[in-house]
Structures are given as structure tokens and as C-alpha cells.
Amino acid sequence: MAPVGRLAICPQAQLSSKQRLQYEVARRRTFAIISHPDAGKTTLTEKLLLYGGAIHLAGSVKARRAQRHATSDWMKLEQERGISITSSVLQFDYEGFRLNLLDTPGHQDFSEDTYRALVAADSAIMLLDNRKGVEEQTRKLFAVCTRRRTPIFTFVNKCDRAGEEPLKLLDDVEKDLGTPLYPLTWPILDGDTFVGVYDRLENYIHLFERTHDHGARRAAVRTAAFGPGAEHLIGQSAYRRLCEEILLLDGAGSSFDVGAFMRGEVSPTFFGSALTNFGVEPFLRSFLRLAPPPREREAIERTVAPNDDAFTGFVFKIQANMDPKHRDRIAFIRICSGEYKPGSMVMNARTARQVRLSAPTQFLARERTLVAEAWPGDVVGILDRGNLRIGDTLSGNGTVTFQGIPRFSPEFFGRLRAPDPLGRKHLDTGLRQLSEEGAVQVFYEAGLTGPAPIVGVVGLLQFEVLLHRLEHEYGVRASIDRMKYSDARWVVGNAQTIIDLGRRPGCALVQDADGQPLVFFDGAWTLQHALEQYKAVTFHEVSR
Ligand code: G4P
């Protein structure tokens, strides 16, 4: 089999600092997995770690997840609910590449952090269940990637058991998402039995042998060139079916367009089964061949290339009180250019203040380790005493301001009630800090005694986290009255028209913390109606 562009292992000591930077950038791949709960994200993550050699026996990530709740003293709520509220990054090596897999919290802990992780990623893997195709959460995350023109891979999982007819599945997904899929591997099916995958670019077949350890170890694979001789390997009916399907796929004409993939206009698609490891390795190899290393990022002042000597990075996540004894906040920074040098001074463009970079921390699952060095594409956590906010840009050379991380329109809303009027000051402080940290979005509606706070979230658990943290960190007992609204849009237009829109049945006009107007809608129909009736108003799903 052809090598997959394995990177030469470089004697790092012999490199100049410029060459070292280029080398480290070239081997970084920073990505996230987008999926609906239960599609197999944890299982696939584990298998990528298994193939990357970061773990030797799959099952340990899940085991660690279970064990963690017994040992971690962080955030009671997390322990009580047995879930992970914070996202982290997993770093591992494969064939000379260094991969950074950004965790995208799902299940009940779906939150704005999930969206923000995508802003820090250079590519994404969309994981689909072969029986279900695109589900709601995937649709939302896919939309964020497309908006940002992030290259997206598709992995159709669970092929070890019968699923939707592959051609139909692809057709449905393409129609649903409006983005063409280009299969680079194709499942070899003998009846309903998945026997391997055909690699379209290499014209190879990979045949799998089931192991009896539920995929705990790498799958045994036999590889052969595809041609008439393959018939006796996969059997007559599987061979005939594969030939027909290849003809159909090739008949569609176009060849795979790497440029279109880089612009997020076509998604290379793979089939496999994370549980049994079938198809994981061919996928990983193609992933490494195609996934982009850290790319240029547009800042207001200039375009920043990852190979620029000066350090730049942006804060995409803030996590408070990871250690309740120290009341610390960790700011997670995605490095965009230059080397991260602990102790050096950088400029925070928003405050025009100097910030000293502390020793960076990296996270494998939930374990913190101090790292000696970090490069573009890496994510480091640094201790913060309340000076940093989500979206802040840090730069070692002059002012650099990356376009801020957008706020995504929430889907659940609630009026915040705190019975003790004396606690109002603490409540305001708490809401301000938690909103800066991105835990919730805070809006204000005109009230009898001044602006009344409304909180908006994209995942319901954020409400619970908010109440818990207000009580334990700010000493304010509060409750939330859920509101009937389910959509919100930032609006731009004539002030009187916007006021009129906000008075319509099922709508409400509020302001965000920066004074920007938003309108809430009590359902998709009300929103649609407003979009059609108020053509002079511009509606934004994401704040700018
Ligand atoms: P998630 O993180 O996306 O929520 O999914 P997770 O990996 O936890 O997988 C959800 C369920 O799907 C698990 O079953 C898992 O074993 C199963 N699964 C994942 N990949 C495959 C696959 O390739 N084939 C098949 N047949 N199943 C797969 P579970 O019964 O909910 O949990 P468990 O008892 O196996 O841990």
C-alpha cells in the first residue's frame, strides 16, 4: 500500500527556530468531531487514540470517564450528574503527525462550548449512524462549520450492522445538508454483512477479520488490489454488487476536488465501524493526507500566517473554578502563529494590556499536564485572574485582533428571579462574569424596576449550571422561569420597525449585554412569518 505522506521524523535539535516552527506547523492537525449523541463519537475517539498509539486497549477512555467521577473533586454538579460539562482537547501522535482532537460536548451537556470548539478547529469529522443519517445536533454543528468554510470529513459509522442502503443514505444526507458528499471508501457488503471497504483513490480493498475482543485491539486487515482476482476474496455476489456500485459512483463523473473540500464545499466520505475498528485505519490515513494543517487567519489588522514568528492566539473557552480550592479560571487558547513561550509578555488587543503567558497546561482527557512547548494548532490552558474573555486575541508583536468568536442564538430562555433584593449586586456581578465566560447569554428586557435579566442557552443543562454557580460562587439563590420562546435573532434596521416587530404576538424585543437588539420568537412559524413580513430588517443567527 502506498505510504500516506508520512512526515520525516526530524532531528529537532538541528533545526533553526524558523525551521522548527515550520516543521511543527506542518505536522499539526487540529480537528473536532461533530455528531448526534449515540452516533459513536466516544467509540471513534477511542479508536483514533488506539491507532495513534496513545492508548493500547480501547475501553480505557470510557473506563477513565467512569473512574473520574470518583476521583475528581471538580464541580459538584458534574459529579452528581455523571457527565462532562467542560470540553478538553486530546493530543496524540500518528505517523509523525501531531493530532489535536477538540472535544465537542454532546448529550445533555451540549452548550455554546460545543460551537466554540469548532471555531478553534481547522477541520471536522461528521460522524453519522448508518441507520439514522443526519440528526438534529449534527445539522446545527454542520451549519456552523459551513458558515466558517471548515473542511468536513464524513464517517458513516456502525456499518457492522445492517443500515440504510449506502447510496440512499448519501443522497438523503446531501439533500438534508445541501453539501455534496464524495465517497472515498465504499462498503463491501455480502448481503447485509460488512466485509470491508473499497478505497476508490487507491483502487484497493481492505478486508477485515472480526476479533473477539469487541475491537479492543487494532483490526486485522488484509489488503489487495481491486480487480477480477478480488472475486475469490470477497465472494461472487459481493464482487458483483461492488462492481455495479463503483460504476454508478464513477458514472457520476466528477473526480474528488481537494480545493472544493478545503472550502467546505464537498465532504469526502468514509464507511466503517468504530466498534469493530473496520475502516478506521483507512479513514485515519486519508484524514492525515487531506486534513489541513493550521491555516492563515484573518485579523482586522493583517492576515496572520501560522509560520509567522510572533506568537498569536485567541481565547475560545474559559472554565472557572476547575479547582474550587483556588478559585482559578483557566482560559483555553488556540495558538495561531509562533511559538508559545511561557514567561513572555503578549498584548491583549481588547484591553491594550500586557499579559504574561504562564506555563501552559495541556489536557489529556481530564488530566492536566504542564507542557514544555506549544505550537500553532495546539490548545493550551493558562491561569487567568479574570482579565481574559472569550474571543480575546493575544499577540507577541503589535496589536492583532482576530474576528471575535460569535455568539450563537440561544434556543431556551428563562427569566431570572432572585428573591433577595439585597443580592442584586452579587447577581449582576455573577451574571456579568458568567456571561463573559460564555456560560450563558444574558439579555435585558424593560422592567418596572429597571432592566430585568433574561438568560438564554443552547443546551438546557446550562440553566442548571448557572443556578448552581450563582449559589456556590456568588452566594445568590435564584430560580428560572422558563419562557415560551425558542428562537432568537439579532436584528438590524429602522428602530421603529424593530419596536413594531417586537410587539407582534409571539415576539419580544430585548437587548444583549452590549445593547444590541434581538427579537425572540415563540416558534419556527412566527420566525418565518417575521422573515417574510419584515424584509427591511436584517436578521442574524449569530452575533457579529
Ligand atoms: P457517543 O459518544 O456519540 O454518544 O456514542 P458512543 O461512542 O458512546 O456509542 C453509542 C453506542 O453505539 C454504544 O453502545 C456503542 O458501543 C455503540 N457503537 C459505537 N460505534 C459502533 C459501531 O461501529 N457499531 C455498532 N454496532 N455499535 C457502535 P451502548 O450499548 O450505548 O454502550 P456500550 O455498552 O457499548 O458502551
Could you characterize the architecture of this molecule?
With 544 residues, this protein is α+β, with helices and mostly antiparallel strands. It contains 15 helices and 29 strands. The strands form six sheets. An eight-stranded antiparallel sheet has the order 25-22-24-23-27-28-26-29. Strand 23 (441-445) and strand 24 (452-457) form a beta hairpin. It starts with 16 loop residues before the first helix and ends with a strand. The structure holds guanosine-5',3'-tetraphosphate. Guanosine-5',3'-tetraphosphate binds next to helix 2.
Salient structural properties:
544 residues, alpha+beta, eight-stranded antiparallel beta sheet, seven-stranded mixed beta sheet, 15 helices, 29 strands, 28% strand, globular, disordered N terminus, binds guanosine-5',3'-tetraphosphate
- Strands of the widest sheet, in order across it, are 25-22-24-23-27-28-26-29
Q: Tell me the major beta sheet.
A: 8 strands, antiparallel
* Quaternary structure classification: single chain
Listed once per kind, the bound small molecules are: guanosine-5',3'-tetraphosphate
Low-confidence segments: 1-7, 56-75, 77-87
Radius of gyration: 25 Å
Helical run tally: 15
**First and last CA, distance:** 48 Å
Beta fraction: 25-35%
Helix content: 25-40%
Shape: globular
Q: Briefly note the structural class of the backbone.
A: alpha+beta
Number of beta-strand segments? 29
Whole-number mean pLDDT: 83
